[in-house]
Specification:
heterodimer; A: about 260 residues; alpha/beta; Rossmann fold; about 35% helix; B: about 325 residues; mainly alpha; two-stranded antiparallel sheet; two-stranded antiparallel ribbon; 14 helices; 4 strands
């Protein structure tokens, strides 16, 4: 309802990408509006990861256009994507576990003094710590986390929350979550799902990739399903159900699937 | 609060290394009163900074998750090439050193490029480079040591001059080591690139996803490590007035042992310059002390190997404890 009136933040037009003989993306077109939570579903090898990597600058596309906020964008590197307001959180690879929370939060965008020294510039440790503590408080991570504690000391759920709050902190327009609840316990998963709702309420757009269809219905406004490198369905979460989504993902006939479920 | 600060200190890898260093010093002092004699301390401090300078570069490289086996070969290569130029091409020492360091930097760059762009492990790349560089050095000299610089030169004094503090004779290398250690300590712990180095070693793809230029940083570190090994070689050859093509044999293993004994993780992500300084002292003191205590020469390595293993056990236990709590 709100969605129709909001602006479009990301649009893909006819994006293709192949690796050798494998056509990973085959003319993908997709529009995502401001403040939406879009779930991206599909079986292994459907092209989800390739699509996400193209948007987050980890590899280019062969053809097709990407528009951010209505403007055509060239995304050649992770840095380009970040500068355009796109933050990607990979399932377990977005934090350096030996570094402190504060140092992770600002990795790649460290506040420095004497910036003319380039990479050798001294970190502004006071500001780093202060901003990190504020951030931890603001995103409401329940436990009292010390900004100087190494990521290694945190649970999986806490780590994901840190990664997501980092994206929020840098006012990312679009936050992409690549299977954020993989390897998490039940309670931690709920924590992350709650967090996604908070992220949306704070005005960010979320693209959420998962294998767990149940989670999708808890947080997503829209469901986009990929199969063999193309988008085969783009539906409002309110207009569909788990069975239908499952059928589209696997490409099975819906009635057959329902019958099978009934037999069980 | 104070209690927990003590505990945090105890959990640092440097602390256990330091305690063992103190134990070693006390033990050797009690075992042989010549251990702290000015002559022995002078001897110890003449050679120690040369390995120490290489260890500083190796610490940063290990923290970024790579290592360099070619440092021992470069240690011989850089002075040999420089002295060949001086003696056969009639170039003055300053220019010859510049050429020597330029070639040394090229070796580092080649290591870095092969590791990052060709994706070959640093073990294999630098092992090949070790053979290549050592082979070039041996061939260029036909296996004979060269007389090093014997004339007076301001460079000679800057790099290898000596002075007395009390009765202890010190060389310029100790000042180089101290200054470079301070610089590397700053770089690793307080600079932007230091944060990148730890992040790359800890989780490379995370660092890349945050826009950290991981490959450029690694290539830079390979160059720095080579240059430091070259500098140590030059300092050493000027001190002993000889540039030998077989100098620095097996230094790579000694240096890596020093760095990991100090508490830097071989797998990357966690590096400590303080720990490396302690490790350098610890290994040199153990080598020196064992001889003074009267361990037979052939049994010498048994003790060194055993002590390194014990140190690594201690680090592993301390590290596991610190994760659990």
């Amino acid at each position: 309802m709100v969605r129709q009136t909001t602006q479009e933040v990301l649009r893909l037009e006819n994006v293709t990408k192949s690796f050798g003989n494998v056509q990973a993306l085959n003319g993908v077109s997709l529009a995502v509006g401001d403040g939406e939570v879009v779930a991206l579903l599909g079986d292994n090898g459907a092209g989800k990861s390739t699509l996400i990597k193209a948007i987050s600058g980890l590899h280019g596309v062969d053809s097709g256009d990407i528009y951010i906020g209505g403007k055509k964008a060239e995304i050649r590197s992770a840095r380009d994507a970040m500068n355009l307001g796109i933050e990607t959180i990979h399932q377990d690879s977005s934090l350096a576990v030996d570094l402190s929370i504060a140092r992770n939060l600002f990795l790649g965008r460290e506040p420095v003094r004497a910036s003319f020294l380039g990479p050798l510039a001294p970190l502004d440790l006071a500001q780093l710590k202060r901003q990190a503590s504020e951030l931890l408080k603001r995103v409401g991570i329940k436990k009292n986390l010390d900004a100087d504690a190494p990521i290694r000391a945190l649970s999986g759920g806490e780590r994901q929350s840190i990664a997501i709050s980092r994206a929020m902190h840098f006012f990312a327009k679009i936050i992409i979550l690549d299977e954020p609840t993989n390897n998490l316990g039940v309670e931690e998963t709920h924590g992350v799902l709650n967090f996604i709702r908070e992220v949306r309420d704070a005005g960010h757009t979320v693209i959420y990739i998962t294998h767990n269809i149940h989670h999708v219905f808890q947080v997503a406004d829209r469901i986009v399903i990929m199969r063999q490198g193309t988008i085969v369905a783009d539906i409002d979460a309110a207009d569909t159900d788990i069975l239908e989504v499952e059928a589209i993902i696997t490409g099975a006939d819906r009635r057959e699937l329902a019958a099978e479920v009934r037999r069980k | 609060m104070k209690h927990s600060r003590w505990r945090a200190l105890l959990r640092k890898p440097e602390t256990s290394s330091f305690l063992i260093l103190c134990l070693a010093v006390v033990f050797f002092t009690v075992a042989n009163d010549r251990f702290l004699s000015p002559l022995n301390v002078s001897n110890l401090l003449a050679f120690l900074p040369e390995l120490g300078i290489i260890a500083l570069g190796m610490t940063l490289l290990l923290t970024a998750g790579e290592f360099d086996l070619s440092v021992g070969a470069v240690f011989a290569f850089c002075p040999v090439i420089s002295m060949l130029l001086v003696q056969h091409a009639g170039i003055d020492l300053g220019t010859a050193l510049i050429v020597g360091f330029a070639l040394t930097a090229t070796i580092g760059a080649a290591n870095g490029l092969f590791v990052t762009k060709a994706g070959i492990s640093s073990f294999l790349v630098t092992l090949s480079m070790l053979l290549l560089v050592r082979g070039c050095t041996l061939f260029a000299t036909q296996g004979f040591p060269l007389a090093s610089w014997s004339g007076e030169s301001i460079l000679q004094i800057l790099l290898a001059g000596s002075f007395y503090v009390g009765e202890v004779r010190l060389h310029a290398s100790i000042i180089w080591f101290a200054a470079l250690a301070a610089l590397m300590f700053y770089v690793l712990n307080y600079s932007k690139v230091g944060n990148w180095i730890s992040a790359i070693g800890s989780n490379r793809s995370a660092a890349v996803a945050r826009g950290v230029p991981a490959d450029a940083v690694k290539i830079g570190l390979f160059i720095v490590t080579s240059l430091l090994a070259g500098l140590a070689g030059i300092i050493s050859s000027l001190r002993i007035s000889s540039a030998s093509p077989v100098a620095g044999d097996q230094y790579e293993l000694e240096v890596i042992a020093m760095v990991v004994v100090g508490g830097t993780a071989l797998t990357g992500g966690r590096g400590t310059i303080i720990g490396t300084i302690i490790g350098v002292f610890l290994l040199r003191i153990i080598r020196n002390g064992i001889v003074l205590v009267g361990v037979p020469g052939l049994a010498f390595n048994i003790f060194v190997g055993g002590i390194i293993l014990i140190m690594l056990m201690v680090h592993s236990i301390v590290h596991k404890r610190s994760i659990r709590s």
